[in-house]
User: Which sequence fits this backbone?
């Protein structure tokens, strides 16, 4: 129920539209009522064979229909507007919020499920709001009007007409529990199916490598077979509920009214026209609304899951927020200090344990260590994807937590291991680094990343689309485009996380040349397993299980004969052996 | 329209059920007919003549009528529900099976989200079309066929009036239809764009954040949402306008009938109840006409959905078993490239006229600059793509003449990107060999230097990875992928830069284990770190899609060329150091 209150608070914003909708609903409900009454008048006159104003009846009928059509039109437009507007605002809110969430959140969530919340769950809410709520108002209003009218016409007959309702409720409650349970099962089964499907389609390479196509198809068929059975079962339950409801309402209800009402007419307590009007009020305006009213409860319950996911997402606090007094970081020199830095992803499991580092502006720092030693974490802390849990990191003497995230990240350029490019032209992909860059600047960056000649050789050059419906680039080519993108953003601090691992040595050398130029005058941090690429670093930091074990220049570390020297010798063992004696 | 015909083809296996459904629809239609007559009987006979006894008859007739209708429509709905679900099932099964047959080039070019949308959303739309649209359409047509004669028998004058307004309706319908269609198509496209963009930017969130493009992306996303909003409003407007026209036309028709009918009643040419019954019947006439609009809108959506589903089904898999393809038993593992030319796009070959013969048990390393065609070469061995010309032979058989599955099962392939699934570590390792014993799994894991990492996890091999599970580093993922490949005991092992993310020490450990694993198999190893491949029997140096040199390390390193340059580059500093130490 807390969810509902919150949803109502979200909807409150549209109170103006809501007021208009309420008014239109009232009018629309009101315009539905004259119909049966006109028919009553008509039938009574006809049965008595009394002349009457036929043209008047005609214009009244057409007029009411036209009016109700116009009101219905306005109502639908308002409701559509409300629904669309709500979806628009909600999606904006969710998407904008997602952007503030840390990378860890995305690593833990399947993209498909995030998407489903933004698209499907929001649509479910819209159904409740523009479908459920609006019908609720209109149903309640109609019900009150009609009850008043029918009791006024003949209370005795009205009571008889209502006496089938207990059966109605009984039928509903008899079925609904089972329907709900099946619905839950269907949802679960469907989620599993969707999750698997997404993963196996994205991982088609692995499926094919292991010739597991038939196995996967069997699995998928199994899941769908379950879904088929559940859905058919669910369909049967629903159909049974509705069929019985129709029998009770239209069948028993009408039969009783005809029987009791017939007697009343013969006894002179009721006119024939009233009887006809009665039947049409009961079947058209009462059984339906009452059934929908009991159903709304259900619809709310169904929406609850969607609400949980939506509010769950909105309630996930971004772990990095600008402090209240955070100032924008002015153009930095790039002196970086790690002062007794501690960090843990999970409480109680520190992955960085008291690291101290002093990097002067313009220096190149290389992190070396086994996977899991905390190298990438060190870099993530610098670009503030996470905040330190102890100690502090400063740039030019300013604690990172005291500056705005945006001003910081704009000056820290990161090239990561996995190359992610977007489904657009090569030019737009590079330009992503700095949106206002000119074409010449884009090409300059490509040149610097040693990819210009490859792009220029393509038939469409920089306008070549990559990704879907586009060309296929090799891993190294993609990586170089990513580097061009980073070069274009002209950061003060450059972070290369295994940026060149997918490149062969020759290309790496070429890019390294470009990167060397880029690194000039900038502070840079790199992680690379190939020691040859990092020997020239001003400061090599050897990490092990979150602790700095050694730090110094290549020569110092080699001379000290520690871990680095060991790693170095390991990698060059063969080279050394190959030396002429 | 041919798509609809094709969809009906999916109902063919269930034709008897379909026939039964149509029969039930007729019964449902017929069961609606007596009700207006009952009203007529009440008004014209029972009430004026005060026949108390007939009230019982009316009561039982109504109850009987609705009981009959209830039972029949229950059976009908159940049947239709089953048919709809069944067609969904068949379509999903076919689509998924087909997707699995399609070669990697299909996936290279498409976003996963869009493929998903076809398998899920589009097929759902088709289901609604079958269970909702088609049934209503058939029932409506049946009703029209039955009702029109009925009203004309009751009164041909009133019948003419009732029919007279229909053309107006048809004309206005035609006027709107084109625009409604156009807007539906546009809306669908915009929605696809929204989904595609969303998927891409969420999957690439790292880049968005790295370049501080959050606001830019939000704005961009909102623009697509805005487009959907605007189009949605236009669509609603068109639909409702048509609805409004329909309502008014219907009211005018009904009004005229009351007008004429009332005159006839007053002139004693008709009974009042008869007029009521008549207006009851024209409801059956107008309702279906109005519903036809809904059906058409639905059909638009379903049509677009069918286009996409059938397009997927019609995409020819590029890699298919030849009709006379043979199953191959256990292979020895010799691989030969004979004049192989290949391009992902045939116009732009990336491998040119390549020849290479590999003996069983050899370790072949492939080096060269990026874009040289290294990955392409090994992809051709695993037959992820077919050569454009020339042939690839395994044990002397052209791979195109061997049943794909039988050969791929004997190839272990570790790709550049380590793709893992959201299941336990154990299931991930055993993906290629579900029958593996825990011991075998552990051994495979040891081979990849992964066992020690797994041991430290609280749940060990039963630890779930991925969503809601533990996060593995890139290096750990690579080791898992290696473990997975070795567990299948392949005859040919392909490692495409499979150790790039490992630090030297781990790599050395993995390397030792791999050397043992590689024994007795044919191996293709792509690596940029030369230290990892110097032990290879032969090193194939590629550049620009051609083999520029082949030989063992000891030979190549003394020959001026690409390899020597690579080597010198990587080992220059090491040699300088070593030399310095050597000279003291």
Assistant:
């Amino acid at each position: 129920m807390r969810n509902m209150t919150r949803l109502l608070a979200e909807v409150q914003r549209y109170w103006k539209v809501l007021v208009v909708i309420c008014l239109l609903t009232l009018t629309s409900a009101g315009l539905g009522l004259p119909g049966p009454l006109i028919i009553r008048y008509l039938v009574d006159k006809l049965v008595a064979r009394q002349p009457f104003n036929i043209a008047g009846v005609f214009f009244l009928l057409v007029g009411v229909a036209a009016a109700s059509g116009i009101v219905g039109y306005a109502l639908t437009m308002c409701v559509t507007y409300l629904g669309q507007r709500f979806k628009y605002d909600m999606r904006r809110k969710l998407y904008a919020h997602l952007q503030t969430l840390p990378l860890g959140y995305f690593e833990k969530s399947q993209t498909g499920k995030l998407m489903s919340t933004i698209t499907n769950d929001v649509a479910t809410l819209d159904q409740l709001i523009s479908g459920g709520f609006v019908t609720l108002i209109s149903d309640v209003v109609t019900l009150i009007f009609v009850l008043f009218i029918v009791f006024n016409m003949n209370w005795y007959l009205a009571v008889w007409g209502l006496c089938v309702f207990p059966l109605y409720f009984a039928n509903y409650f008899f079925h609904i529990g089972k329907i709900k349970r099946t619905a839950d099962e269907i949802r679960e089964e469907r989620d599993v199916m969707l999750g698997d499907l997404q993963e196996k389609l994205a991982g088609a390479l692995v499926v094919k490598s292991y010739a597991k196509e038939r196995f996967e198809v069997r699995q998928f068929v199994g899941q769908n077979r379950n879904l088929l059975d559940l859905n058919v079962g669910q369909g049967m339950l629903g159909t049974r509920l509705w069929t019985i409801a129709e029998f009770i309402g239209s069948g028993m209800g009408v039969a009783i009214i005809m029987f009791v009402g017939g007697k009343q007419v013969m006894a002179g307590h009721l006119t024939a026209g009233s009887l006809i009007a009665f039947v049409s009020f009961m079947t058209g305006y009462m059984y339906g609304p009452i059934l929908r009213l009991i159903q709304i409860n259900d619809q709310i319950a169904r929406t609850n899951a969607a609400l949980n996911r939506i509010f769950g997402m909105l309630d996930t606090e971004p772990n990095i927020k600008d402090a209240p007094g955070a100032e924008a970081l002015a153009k930095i020199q790039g002196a970086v200090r790690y002062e007794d830095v501690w960090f843990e992803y999970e409480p109680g499991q520190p992955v960085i344990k008291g690291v101290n580092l002093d990097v002067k502006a313009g220096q190149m720092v290389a992190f070396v260590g086994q996977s899991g030693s905390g190298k990438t974490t060190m870099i993530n802390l610098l670009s503030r994807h996470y905040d330190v849990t102890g100690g502090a990191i400063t740039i030019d003497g300013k604690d990172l937590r005291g500056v705005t995230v945006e001003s910081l990240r704009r000056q820290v350029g990161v090239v990561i291991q996995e190359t992610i490019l977007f489904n657009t032209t090569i030019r737009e992909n590079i330009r992503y680094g700095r949106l206002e860059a000119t074409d010449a600047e884009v090409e300059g960056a490509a040149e610097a990343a040693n990819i210009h000649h490859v792009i220029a050789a393509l038939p469409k050059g920089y306008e070549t689309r990559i990704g879907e419906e586009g060309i296929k680039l090799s891993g190294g080519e993609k990586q170089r485009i990513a580097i061009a993108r980073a070069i274009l953003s002209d950061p003060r601090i450059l972070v290369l996380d295994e940026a060149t691992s997918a490149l062969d040595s020759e290309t790496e050398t070429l890019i390294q040349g470009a990167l060397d130029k880029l690194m000039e005058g900038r502070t840079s941090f790199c992680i690379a397993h190939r020691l040859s690429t990092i020997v020239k670093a001003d400061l090599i930091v050897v990490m092990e299980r979150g602790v700095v074990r050694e730090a110094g220049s290549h020569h110092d570390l080699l001379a000290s004969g520690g871990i680095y020297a060991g790693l170095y010798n390991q990698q060059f063992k063969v080279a050394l052996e190959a030396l002429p004696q | 329209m041919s798509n609809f015909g094709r969809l009906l083809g999916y109902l063919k296996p269930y034709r008897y059920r379909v026939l039964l459904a149509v029969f039930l629809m007729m019964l449902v239609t017929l069961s609606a007919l007596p009700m207006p007559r009952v009203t007529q009987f009440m008004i014209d006979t029972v009430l004026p003549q005060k026949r108390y006894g007939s009230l019982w008859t009316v009561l039982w007739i109504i109850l009987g009528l609705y009981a009959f209708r209830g039972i029949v429509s229950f059976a009908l709905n159940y049947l239709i529900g089953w048919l709809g679900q069944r067609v969904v099932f068949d379509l999903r099964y076919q689509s998924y099976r087909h997707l699995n047959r399609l070669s990697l080039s299909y996936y290279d070019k498409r976003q996963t989200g869009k493929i998903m949308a076809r398998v899920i959303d589009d097929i759902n739309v088709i289901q609604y079309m079958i269970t909702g649209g088609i049934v209503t359409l058939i029932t409506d047509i049946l009703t029209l066929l039955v009702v029109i004669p009925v009203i004309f028998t009751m009164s041909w004058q009133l019948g003419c009036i009732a029919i007279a307004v229909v053309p107006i309706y048809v004309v206005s319908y035609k006027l709107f239809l084109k625009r409604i269609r156009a807007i539906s198509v546009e809306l669908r496209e915009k929605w696809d764009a929204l989904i595609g963009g969303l998927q891409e930017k969420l999957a690439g969130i790292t880049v968005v954040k790295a370049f501080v493009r959050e606001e830019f992306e939000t704005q961009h996303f909102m623009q697509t949402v805005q487009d959907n909003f605007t189009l949605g409003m236009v669509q609603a407007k068109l639909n409702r306008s048509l609805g409004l026209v329909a309502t008014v036309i219907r009211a005018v028709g009904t009004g005229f009938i009351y007008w004429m009918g009332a005159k006839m009643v007053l002139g004693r040419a008709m009974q009042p109840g008869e007029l009521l019954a008549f207006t009851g019947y024209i409801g059956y006439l107008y309702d279906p006409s109005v519903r036809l609009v809904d059906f058409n809108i639905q059909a638009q959506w379903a049509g677009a959905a069918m286009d996409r589903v059938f397009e997927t089904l019609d995409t020819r898999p590029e890699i298919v078993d030849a009709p006379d393809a043979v199953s191959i038993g256990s292979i020895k593992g010799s691989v030969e490239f004979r004049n192989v030319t290949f391009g992902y796009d045939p116009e732009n070959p990336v491998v040119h006229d390549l020849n290479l013969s590999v003996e069983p048990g050899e370790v072949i390393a492939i080096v060269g600059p990026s874009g040289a065609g290294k990955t392409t070469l090994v992809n051709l061995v695993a037959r992820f793509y077919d050569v454009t010309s020339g042939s690839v032979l395994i044990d002397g058989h052209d791979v195109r003449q061997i049943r794909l599955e039988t050969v791929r099962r004997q190839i272990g392939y570790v790709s550049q990107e380590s793709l893992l699934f959201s299941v336990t570590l154990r299931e991930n390792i055993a993906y290629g060999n579900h029958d593996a014993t825990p011991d075998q799994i552990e051994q495979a894991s040891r081979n990849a230097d992964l066992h020690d990492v797994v041991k430290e996890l609280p749940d060990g091999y039963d630890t779930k990875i991925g969503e809601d599970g533990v996060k593995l580093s890139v290096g750990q993922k690579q080791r898992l992928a290696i473990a997975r490949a070795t567990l299948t005991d392949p005859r040919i092992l392909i490692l495409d830069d499979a150790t790039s993310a490992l630090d030297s020490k781990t790599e050395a450990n993995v390397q030792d284990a791999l050397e043992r694993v590689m024994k007795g198999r044919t191996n293709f190893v792509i690596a940029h770190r030369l230290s990892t491949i110097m032990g290879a029997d032969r090193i194939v140096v590629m550049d620009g899609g051609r083999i520029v040199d082949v030989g063992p390390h000891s030979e190549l390193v003394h020959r001026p060329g690409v390899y020597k340059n690579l080597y010198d580059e990587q080992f220059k500093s090491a040699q300088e150091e070593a030399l310095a130490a050597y000279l003291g």
About this structure: Chain A has 19 helices and ten strands. Strands of chain A lie at 336-344, 350-359, 364-369, 390-395, 398-399, 412-415, 493-497, 523-527, 539-544, 547-552. Chain A has two domains: 2-315, 325-411+495-502+528-581. The longest helix of chain A spans residues 213-266.
